[in-house]
Amino acid sequence: MAEIVTVKYRGITLELEGDIIQAYDGRYNERSVGIEFETQEVYAGGVLITNLLTGENLMDLDALAVEVIK
């Protein structure tokens, strides 16, 4: 199920639609569950802009989404 996360990137508020991925790294405490976000679509003011972004932009947005989720 896709999640919606709102982030501010380079002064612009964007809505990211994507998947939250949780992975257990093998340690015994609860903090060993890592969270990642995989952006599928990016909207600015309701307009789809995913195709205008580079891979590097998308990785930056994934990292910002994780900060918002935590």
Quick overview of this protein structure:
The protein has 70 residues and is an alpha+beta fold. It has one helix at 55-69, and strands at 3-9, 12-24, 33-44, 47-48. The two termini are 19 Å apart.
User: What is the straight-line distance between the termini?
Assistant: 19 Å
What topology, given as strand order, has the largest sheet?
A: 1-2-3-4
Strand content: over 45%
Helix fraction? 10-25%
Enumerate the spans where pLDDT stays under 50 for 5 or more consecutive residues: none
Backbone shape:
elongated
Describe the protein.
The structure is a single chain. This protein has 70 residues and is of the alpha+beta class. It has one domain. The protein contains 1 helix and 4 strands; from the N terminus they run ββββα. It has one helix at 55-69; strands at 3-9, 12-24, 33-44, 47-48. It has a 4-stranded antiparallel sheet. The radius of gyration is 13 Å and the shape is elongated.
Feature tags:
single chain; elongated; 4 strands; four-stranded antiparallel β-sheet; 1 helix; 70 residues; alpha+beta
